[in-house]
Amino acid sequence: MSKGYAFHLGSGILVAVLVTVILTLALSACVLLLSVPVSYVTVANQLIKVLSVFCAVLFLRKREEGRCLSFGIMVGGGYIALGIFIYCAVSGRLLPLFSIAAELALGVISGLLSGIAVSHLPEKALNKRKRRRN
């Protein structure tokens, strides 16, 4: 793995984390203001994870054309692994193995699907940006 490849992977995970922070703060405000049931919050947290991985892959598409699938899988898995590590470090306990496996599967599958979706988006916006530079 080259240095640039690892840098792009790390920046993708950072984008996913930033999107998660923003959406989690918005969800927290909605929960406080609207008194949303806990069952909806759990579903919203999973959707936030998937949306964060999608945004990260969309961000990386501009830098690494043609590698959306591989970046999607690695960003999804790395983002979820980082989240599990932070949760276990803060709470001081290890999650059950089944929970870890399910979360990692969610990350990898959402990364794969995000990579497929992003690789099939039209390239009009990307081409306009390249023309302006030339």
Keywords, separated by commas or semicolons:
5 helices, 134 residues
Q: Could you describe the 3D structure shown?
A:
The chain has 134 residues and is an all-alpha fold. The chain has one domain (3-124). It is 84% helix and 0% strand. The protein contains 5 helices and no strands. α1 (3-34) packs across α3 (68-91), α2 packs across α4 and α3 runs antiparallel to α4. The protein is globular and about 45 Å long. The two termini are 30 Å apart. The mean pLDDT is 86.
Protein structure class: mainly alpha
Sheet having the most strands: none
Overall helicity: over 70%
Strand content range: under 5%
Counted up, domains total 1
Q: How many helices does DSSP assign?
A: 5
Question: How big is the Rg?
Answer: 16 Å
Q: Alpha-carbon distance between the termini?
A: 30 Å
User: How would the global form be characterised?
Assistant: globular
Q: Topology as H/E string?
A: HHHHH
Q: Which parts are unreliable, with pLDDT below 50 for 5 consecutive residues or more?
A: none
Q: Count of DSSP E strands? A: 0
- Overall average pLDDT: 86
